[in-house]
Amino acid sequence: MTERDYKAAAVEQWTNDPIAANLAEGEPGTRSYFESLLAARADYGPWMAEVLGYAPGGSDVAGVRVLDVGCGQAIDLAGYAKAGADATGVDLTPRHVDLARRNLESLGLEAEAVLGDAERLPFDDASFDRVSSNGVLHHTPDMAGALREIRRVLRPGGEARIIVYNKRSLHYWINQVLYRGIMRAGLLRERSMAGVLSSGVEFSRSEARPLVRVYTQRQVARMLEDAGFADVTTEVRHFKPGDAFLYATLAKRISRLRDPKLCDRIGRRAGWYVVGRGVRPAT
Question: What are phi and psi of 177, to 5 degrees?
């Protein structure tokens, strides 16, 4: 597929199935729907608000100009707005932008959602103090280009925080490679792990098949450095029993394996997400 095809597939995917909509209840764009969506995110990834800097009691974004690249239905955008940030979101999918605006309005939150491409951000140089992107850049054909764009729109001294899928996670090797790729013959049908990931990582009721890539911590760090970021750090987060079917089978019998603290420790070594941070140098 060409870059254009991948982006068309992404728009088709999240037009038909807006991100995390399968976890929410109610009519999209209503207060009850958005509240259930926010609750589902908090249950799925309680660490995300802390890592992105808008957790209650630990926020560092009050008065800060924040851009959320790939804002989806405005889950993180709402978190930034609640924390007092001057928040803007951008997304490639028109339906996401529409739902983001309606969701924010339903809770009376002030933030802006605009249509745009992560690889060609529609903002001036040095427009933001912080740029975040949660679970998005592994879907864009030119992640390196998107990181350069993120650096461009950051002010000198501004920070980027990105979250992408981890190639060295238990989820990737057990659920994706072993279960879907080998046991379910996905590799035989698709001829590559890229095809296996594209066909099943994201919840989908269509045949859109968005691009899905996985990255190691070293790859994320190198890409941030190559894009011109300094003070680069990475960490790994997120593990739940269902992320590895063999673990889930044992966890049904051994309650200790369901302990959130244990799962968090596992997630910090073999979790499904790599978190990368970098600063645009002042000079």
Answer: -75, -55
Q: Are 76 and 68 in contact (CB under 8 A)?
A: yes
Q: Give the integer Cα–Cα distance in Å for 244 and 162.
A: 24
In the block, residue with structure tokens 């983001």: 100
210/203 Cα distance (integer angstroms) = 11
Distance CA 250, CA 81 (A): 41
Closest CA to 166 of 213, 113, 133: 213
The two beta strands, 273-279 and 230-237, are antiparallel
The phi and psi torsions of 14 (rounded to 5 degrees) equal -90, -5
Q: How far is CA 189 from CA 115, 192, 252, in A?
A: 35, 8, 31
Distance of CA 81 to the CA centre of its chain: 18
Q: Nearest 5 degrees, angle CA 176-CA 216-CA 87? A: 100
Q: Delineate the domains of the chain, giving CATH numbers in brackets.
A: 3-166+209-239+271-279 (3.40.50.150)
Give the whole-angstrom CA distance, residue 110 versus residue 66: 13
3-state DSSP helix/strand/coil % of the chain, to nearest 5: 45, 20, 35
User: pLDDT tens across 108-160, in order?
Assistant: 999 999 999 999 999 999 999 999 999 999 999 999 999 999 999 999 999 99
CB 162 within 8 A of CB 135: no
Q: Are 121 and 69 in contact (CB under 8 A)?
A: yes
Q: What is the pLDDT of residue 203?
A: 83
The CA-based angle 134-140-145, given to 5 degrees, is: 95
DSSP conformational letter for 171: I
